[in-house]
């Protein structure tokens, strides 16, 4: 099973600023000045970017001398299935560019497709497909903000097979089209 997630520092920074629960347990935010570590979704005051380190493993962050946040309690495991769900999410994040079916995910984590979908939905309130779409849209938003790639190039870069589906899912999750999203970002920068 794949255990570490492939996100850049900037991507992880964006996840903690957005308090994104989708990435809880996949990485931890450690603050050098306070020696405290948190989940990506922690609602505590955000630290200065220069004071942040990211760790992929709870043992690694604790061995580095950090203690858990009392607000978000990153050391508390809320479910007996958390490791399986983490493995599924890690697989989705690391393979979002590929055409992934439920069978592919099930083979990766050693579960039947039916049980995997039921377990994942029970733990996250989403299907693996909708979760994957959110990851792809997160990546697309990041690329719209940080590159000059066209919408079509981004569509295929983040793993969508059809532009119409990309635009539909983007609008559903961001309440605007990719072009409108990019224009908003440019407007905010002025």
UniProtKB/TrEMBL annotation:
Protein name, UniProt field: Helix-turn-helix domain-containing protein
Cofactor annotation: Zn(2+)
UniProt KW keywords: Activator, DNA-binding, Methyltransferase, Transcription, Transcription regulation, Transferase
Domain HTH araC/xylS-type: from-to ranges: 86-184
Keyword Signal: no
BP terms from Gene Ontology: DNA repair; methylation
GO molecular-function terms, A-Z: DNA-binding transcription factor activity; methyltransferase activity; sequence-specific DNA binding; zinc ion binding
UniProt source species: Lysinibacillus halotolerans
Keyword Transport: no
